[in-house]
Amino acid sequence: MAVAALRPRALLWQALALGVVAGVIAVFSINAAHHLAARHIATGFGFLSAAAPIPIGESLISYTPSVSTYGRALLIGVLNTLKVAIPGCLLATLLGTLVGIARLSPIALLARLAALYVELLRDLPLLLQLLFWYGVFQTLPAPRQAMRPLPGVFLSNRGLRIPDLVWQPGFTGVAFALLGGIALSFFLARRTALAPGLAVRLGAFLPVLLLPAATLALYRPAFRVDWPALHGFNFQGGASLSPEYAALLTGLVLYTTSYVAEIVRGGLAAVARGQWEAGAALGLPRGAVLRLIVLPQALRLIIPPLTSQYLNLVKNSSLAVAIGYQDLVSIADTTLNQTGQAIEGVALIMAVYLSISLTISLAMNFYNARLARQAG
Amino acid sequence: MRSSLPVRIFSAAVTLALALILLDGLWHFFSWAIVHAVWSVPRGADGAPDTDLCRAAIGRGACWAVIGEKFRFILFGFYPHALQWRPAIVVALFVLLFALSLNPRFWRPALVAVWLAVLALVAVLMWGGVFGLDFVAADQWGGLPITLILATFGLALSFPLAILVALGRRASGLPMIRWLAVAYVELIRGVPLISLLFMASVMLPLFLPEGIDINKLLRAQLAFILFAGAYLAEVVRAGLQALPRGQQEAAAALGLSYWQATRLVILPQALRHVIPMLVNTFIGFFKDTSLVLIIGIFDLMTTGRTATLEPRWQGFGNEVYLLLAAIYFAFCFTMARISRLLERRLNEPHLPIEEPA
Amino acid sequence: MSGPAIRFEDVHKWYGRVHVLRGISLDVASGERVVLCGPSGSGKSTLLRCINRLETHEKGRIVVDGMALSDEPRALKAIRREVGMVFQSFNLFPHLSVLENCTLAPIRVRGLGRAEAEARAMEYLARVRIPEQAGKYPAQLSGGQQQRVAIARALCMQPKIMLFDEPTSALDPEMVREVLDVMVELAESGMTMLAVTHEMGFARQVADRVVFMDQGEIVESGPPGEIFSAPRSPRLKSFLSQILHQH
């Protein structure tokens, strides 16, 4: 609307708004400086290189309490957050898609159950669900009476222990070969999507198997497995997932799944009936119609809200502090309690999450712009 | 399109399998929750409850005695026992308010006055100190009233802010204001609620001048208002964007000023369009209040959790969590259902929303 | 009022790089009825919308009712009080009743009391021949009825000038007549009117002058008799032949 944007007036309003904000910030800063001085609390980020007397239960990189720095501790926090966020997003997408499709299934009971799942999990607070799962994982038996669902896999109230494959140099090459195989398969799969004959279409996925297998045969790295074994009251060896991690992952995945399921269902349902009918009229089998016509259109509707759910999952992972999993928020909280530097602590937490969310937003805008160009 | 026989057999098989699993699960749950449950425990010589009966039934039967013992604490926290009729009325008032607000028949300007009256009444009942009511300090409040207060006051007090921010974001010719609005929304939405709660509980005291002190609950409430404002601003913005441009033009052509047009023509329509979204956002707030557990405020979640920590009643967390789940579910599910009903109703364009005079 | 009701002095407007109004100079006298016509994209709607500043012009001067158009809020409000507009898509306020649609501006802008505003509204609703619909909501009315309410709503402000932006283009054919009848009656009562329309019959019946625009310029203007039976410019000739072709 052609608002009366007369220059002097517009400038006046804007100057006023900026003035108010600047004024508030100024007042806050003055008061804060006063309080901090009175309590002899330092300012600035110097504490990042100070030794951190924080005990950290699980970390992906080496850490020694009271020797390693706060900076390192916070880095471990970020890594721990990613450790739960990335598998969380993957699993939630997978499960969510399944439940979403189940919701549309012609099998009445299945559809009803899926709907019930979605409704139930969305109407209960995530924190409650996390506390519940944490309680469940704590009622698992003690290590001495651990459950053994598979050889070498132990489930107890100290977490999940699985045999660990000791990483050999040759494995890096295999990993690259795997990635290369996936890329090649993507390329081939697009080319052969419409080819007649199931064998040809499946053949496009061969590189995923062949390339890594070839690399393995070439390098022949030794396979060494670290089996967990009971020593005294706990296990040693193998890889472990703490009950805190398990509870957080389970709670986050199940909760986010219910939202993803609704998004997937909504996207699929929104693709007009006419598309199915047009595809069928052209003689395409149901699977092909889904893959080539409906799914691409549904994806367009699904991806924006889906990325915002990913962002929600990352933000929700901050609830880890309530069940004792040491993610970024948990370690930052301990840090600011120990150093007294609340402002820097909270600012750090916000900065990290903000950069994650802005990155996702940018990626989203990029994707949307691309779509808009395609639509013409 | 009738399915072929193999598909129908598969369908039936899946249904059968699911039904069996479901019935088995339900039977186990029923047996734990009702059949083998322990409903009350005797009191020992010192008057304290003797939980041996419950302990003996762990794994087989639920211990509902813990609910019987703890339920007033879970619902009302540390509020003085004799005065708990006051928070009980507060809860009833909130339920009444929600019921009124979700009914399209009451969607007229007078509703705002009702909201203000109820919120004022809640404050009076909880705090007391006037009209002959005993004073109860805010740090003794707890349980369900806190959850309702945080969510509802959060929504109500952030609404004007949200509207201003949403309008500011669309203000042409005022780039600074637009920028401020965008910055506010993106900042709040990009960080987890917990960081805002930390900010309020740990940083806010540093920002205030010497001597001025805000109690913990108020700090959390401020964080919620800030949080709610950003999310509601996005909802209002969606409503504004959905409005046809012609409405603004017609209002302008009639000589209405920007604020007159916004108040009388644009906002009433925009807000009406997004009522389902508003309700859904409120449901989210309601669940999010549980996070105050982390900063030590006694809302429903915290009182529930604290109840499970008492040594005598250790290990009966599931029973308490089930009670909490029932309460949260009752509120959220009801509101979600009504929101869906409203959405269907609002999508019937030939039906006017209000009954004509 | 001395001077013309509307004056355009060498007005230019650009949409980005597109030159949508090229040096428009036009006078509309008080009480004059002018029809603007031309192919789509000729700038006729834009010209109309510049008069009550729904669009802004970049160069030149526009004077309405003796006041020069600018962004100064009080002057703008004064001009918009005296200029009524009827839109192609009606733009009635769906959340208000027909009566409330008509009384909103008189109460809020002209400062009338409610009773007075309602009396005036009923008078104009009677004039557009739908007084019985006063309590209904826009969604319950037909297109033709809605447009007539829109005309009444604009008239309730008792403007000196009425602008019509393709008022019948969005109507089903059987409802065009009822709206045109109202416009004819309004024209015959002496209202200063500037209408963008394809309805040549209306122009012939009522207009004092027809202005033909093409590609942002006024190509030809004159009384309807002249314009329709003796077009001079080739562009007008080809435009007329297209219109008549459609009829």
TrEMBL record, chain A:
Classification via InterPro entries: AA_ABC_transptr_permease_3TM (IPR010065), ArtM/GltK/GlnP/TcyL/YhdX-like (IPR043429), MetI-like (IPR000515), MetI-like_sf (IPR035906)
PROSITE patterns: ABC_TM1 (PS50928)
NCBIfam families referenced in this protein's UniProt entry, alphabetically: HEQRo_perm_3TM (TIGR01726)
Listed transmembrane segments: 12-33, 45-64, 84-102, 165-189, 198-219, 346-367
Family: Belongs to the binding-protein-dependent transport system permease family. HisMQ subfamily.
Cell compartments where the protein resides: Cell inner membrane; Cell membrane
GO cellular component: ATP-binding cassette (ABC) transporter complex
Keyword Transport attached: yes
UniProt membrane topology term: Multi-pass membrane protein
Keywords attached to this entry: Amino-acid transport, Cell membrane, Membrane, Transmembrane, Transmembrane helix, Transport
Any single Pfam family the record assigns to this protein: BPD_transp_1
Keyword Nucleus among UniProt keywords: no
Protein name, UniProt field: ABC transporter permease subunit
Biological process according to GO: amino acid transport
Signal sequence residues: none
ABC transmembrane type-1 domain mapped to chain residues: 78-364
TrEMBL record, chain B:
GO molecular function terms noted in the UniProt entry: transmembrane transporter activity
Keywords from the named record: Cell membrane, Membrane, Transmembrane, Transmembrane helix, Transport
Cited Pfam families: BPD_transp_1 (PF00528)
UniProt signal peptide: none
TM spans (from-to): 85-103, 110-131, 143-167, 179-208, 220-240, 277-300, 320-338
The keyword Transport is assigned to this record: yes
Domain ABC transmembrane type-1, first and last residues per copy: 144-339
Superkingdom assignment: Bacteria
GO CC annotations on file: ATP-binding cassette (ABC) transporter complex
Membrane topology listed for this record: Multi-pass membrane protein
GO annotation terms (biological process): amino acid transport
Localization (cell): Cell inner membrane; Cell membrane
Xref: InterPro entries: AA_ABC_transptr_permease_3TM, ArtM/GltK/GlnP/TcyL/YhdX-like, MetI-like, MetI-like_sf
Lyase is among the record's keywords: no
Family: Belongs to the binding-protein-dependent transport system permease family. HisMQ subfamily.
Protein name (database record): Amino acid ABC transporter permease
Species annotation: Acidicaldus sp
Lineage: Bacteria, Pseudomonadati, Pseudomonadota, Alphaproteobacteria, Acetobacterales
UniProtKB/TrEMBL annotation, chain C:
Family of the protein in this entry: Belongs to the ABC transporter superfamily.
GO terms for MF: ABC-type amino acid transporter activity; ATP binding; ATP hydrolysis activity
Keywords per UniProt: ATP-binding, Nucleotide-binding, Transport
ABC transporter domain location: 6-240
Matches recorded under SUPFAM superfamilies: P-loop containing nucleoside triphosphate hydrolases
Alphabetical list of InterPro entries matching this protein: AAA+_ATPase (IPR003593), ABC_ATPase_HisP-typ (IPR030679), ABC_transporter-like_ATP-bd (IPR003439), ABC_transporter-like_CS (IPR017871), MetN_ABC_transporter-like (IPR050086), P-loop_NTPase (IPR027417)
PANTHER family (alphabetical): AMINO ACID IMPORT ATP-BINDING PROTEIN (PTHR43166), PHOSPHONATES IMPORT ATP-BINDING PROTEIN PHNC (PTHR43166:SF4)
Organism, as annotated: Acidicaldus sp
UniProt keyword annotation of Zinc present: no
Protein name per its UniProtKB record: Amino acid ABC transporter ATP-binding protein
